[in-house]
């Protein structure tokens, strides 16, 4: 009787442990499902390349606060959420093809202060281009000239746009490239929230497709707070070949 009771208790414990482990695996797969549709990483090292801020090239360079926050959020998500073994964050001016091109790449920031963005645009020709002005930047769809105008009032951004582009890296076969480029830093920061938890589920629901996929988002800034990002365009496209 005692041995039968012990066997029953052991069987129940084993069933509980197996069930708990199964539930944990299921929950993890469910949580990572959206991420895997966005981050198609296969490499062991990712380099996050953020914009150079004001004073680049001087003894006291600084960073744009929004771009720096976006870079930090993405790096933490890759490291802690997707468990990428190695994640490095560098400035665009520090990018070295000899050292970095074999890695998966995340480019944070647009042409105003990110030299790597300019190099990539020349190489692959993103579907949107930026028109830069002293106090703002606009997005222009290359196919038909559709204009998305950043709005700035009394030196403060009140409406911003950003492009999120997902594609294979043009520098190395089998490596991925994610580009988060806003008209301003508000847009770039909003883009980073759609490639990390919890916003990544919204982006993954669009079913990003190969070989390249770009989403354009719009936000408003009211009393210093950004509204929920709105999708205003999405394009599946083929990068230009060299």
From TrEMBL:
Protein name: Uncharacterized protein
Species this chain originates from: Actinocorallia herbida
Organism lineage: Bacteria, Bacillati, Actinomycetota, Actinomycetes, Streptosporangiales
């Amino acid at each position: 009787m005692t041995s039968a009771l012990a066997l029953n208790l052991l069987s129940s414990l084993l069933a509980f442990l197996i069930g708990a482990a199964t539930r944990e695996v299921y929950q993890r797969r469910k949580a990572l499902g959206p991420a895997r549709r966005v981050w198609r990483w296969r490499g062991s090292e990712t380099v996050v390349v953020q914009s150079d801020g004001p004073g680049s090239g001087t003894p006291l360079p600084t960073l744009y606060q929004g771009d720096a926050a976006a870079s930090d959020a993405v790096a933490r998500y890759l490291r802690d959420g997707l468990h990428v073994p190695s994640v490095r964050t560098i400035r665009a001016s520090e990018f070295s093809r000899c050292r970095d091109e074999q890695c998966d790449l995340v480019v944070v920031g647009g042409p105003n202060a990110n030299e790597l963005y300019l190099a990539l645009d020349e190489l692959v020709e993103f579907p949107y281009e930026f028109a830069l002005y002293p106090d703002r930047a606009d997005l222009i769809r290359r196919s038909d000239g559709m204009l998305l105008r950043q709005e700035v009032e009394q030196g403060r951004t009140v409406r911003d746009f950003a492009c999120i582009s997902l594609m294979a890296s043009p520098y190395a076969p089998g490596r991925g490239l994610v580009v988060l480029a806003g008209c301003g830093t508000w847009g770039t920061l909003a883009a980073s929230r759609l490639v990390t938890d919890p916003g990544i589920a919204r982006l993954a629901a669009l079913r990003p497709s190969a070989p390249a996929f770009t989403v354009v988002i719009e936000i408003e800034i009211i009393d210093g707070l950004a509204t929920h990002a709105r999708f205003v365009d999405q394009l599946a496209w083929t990068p230009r070949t060299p």
